[in-house]
Amino acid sequence: MINLGLPTTVVTLLPQDINIGPNSNGLPGISQLKSIVGASMTIGLILAVLGLIVSAVVWALGANSSNPHLAGRGKFGVLVGLGAAIVTGASVALVNFFWNVGQSV
After folding, report:
1. Is residue 58 classed exposed, middle or buried when 0-12, 13-18 and 19+ CB atoms within 10 A define those classes?
2. pTM of the complete model
3. Contacts of 85 (CB under 8 A, 6+ apart)
4. Is residue 72 part of a domain?
5. I want to staple 48 with a disulfide (CB 3.0 to 4.6 A). Which of 15, 54, 84, 104 is the partner?
6. Residue 64 lies in a domain
7. What CA–CA distance (Å, rounded) separates 33 from 50?
8. Torsion 25-26-31-34 (CA) sign
9. How far apart are CA 31 and CA 66, in angstroms?
10. What is the pLDDT of residues 7-64, one digit of tens each?
């Protein structure tokens, strides 16, 4: 057998045990950023309720004035307002869910 000076052991190049999680103390201003995000969620929910109210009024006006186009726009606006409220309210839960899914991969 000829020895060419090559190493006989194979070094694994895969990471052994890396465990990195979110760090809330790593950057300055994290608490202010959390406050800004919370305020943005509040504004989003308020605007979703406002859109829902306006759309319900448009729907009622369209239905009572026999205007199917206006009533249809009001119905669509109600659905959009409800969808916006659902997404805004569930955003933290959705992000946490997908974060946990990503960590289990």
Report:
1. buried
2. 0.70
3. 45, 48, 49, 52
4. yes
5. 84
6. yes
7. 26
8. negative
9. 52
10. 655 555 656 677 777 787 878 888 899 999 999 999 999 999 999 999 999 999 999 9
How many domains does the chain divide into? Answer: 1
Map tokens 């307002």 to a residue.
81
- Give residue 77's domain range: 31-103
Q: Which residues neighbour 73 within 8 Å (Cβ) at sequence distance 6 or greater? A: 55, 58, 59, 62
Per the structure block, which two tokens stand in for 77?
């606006």
Tokens 């895969």 belong to which residue? Answer: 14
Domain membership of residue 66 (yes or no) is: yes
The rounded distance, in Å, linking the Cα atoms of 55 and 80 is: 9
Whether residue 82 lies inside any domain: the answer is yes
